[in-house]
Design a protein that fits this description.
108 residues; alpha+beta; 2 domains; two-stranded antiparallel sheet; 2 helices; binds zinc ion
């Protein structure tokens, strides 16, 4: 179901998703909450499965190269910033956790 984002600088029609933990509707384009969504509409999103899958947003990290919060892209078994594509410096423990989660998601 397409929604139009109300955030300045975005205003894109996109498949926004419901964050069940916070009950916010999040724009798929800019990642910000879209305000003014009624509970009825949130229930529709929920029933259609248009929801943010468990915890995937919490894996974003701060990139040392572009200084922005980014998602982690795995290329050649190394973590890369999803925004500037520079390699990220993550601890092995953390990176292994990320890999496990990514594998789980792609198996869904
Ligand atoms: Zn947006
Ligand atoms: Zn970056």
């Amino acid at each position: 179901m397409l929604m139009t984002c109300t955030n300045k600088g975005c205003l894109q029609s996109n498949e926004a998703k419901l964050n069940r933990r916070t009950n916010e509707v999040i724009c798929a384009e800019c990642g910000q909450e879209i305000g003014g969504i009624t509970d009825t509409f949130k229930k529709i999103l929920d029933s259609q499965g248009q929801i943010i899958r468990a915890e995937s947003k919490s894996m974003s990290v701060q990139c040392n190269s572009c200084k922005k919060k980014c998602d982690i892209d795995i290329k050649e078994n190394k973590p890369h910033c999803s925004l500037c594509s520079e390699e990220l410096q993550l601890s092995d423990t953390f990176f292994n956790m990320v890999k496990t989660m990514v594998e789980k998601e792609s198996n869904e």
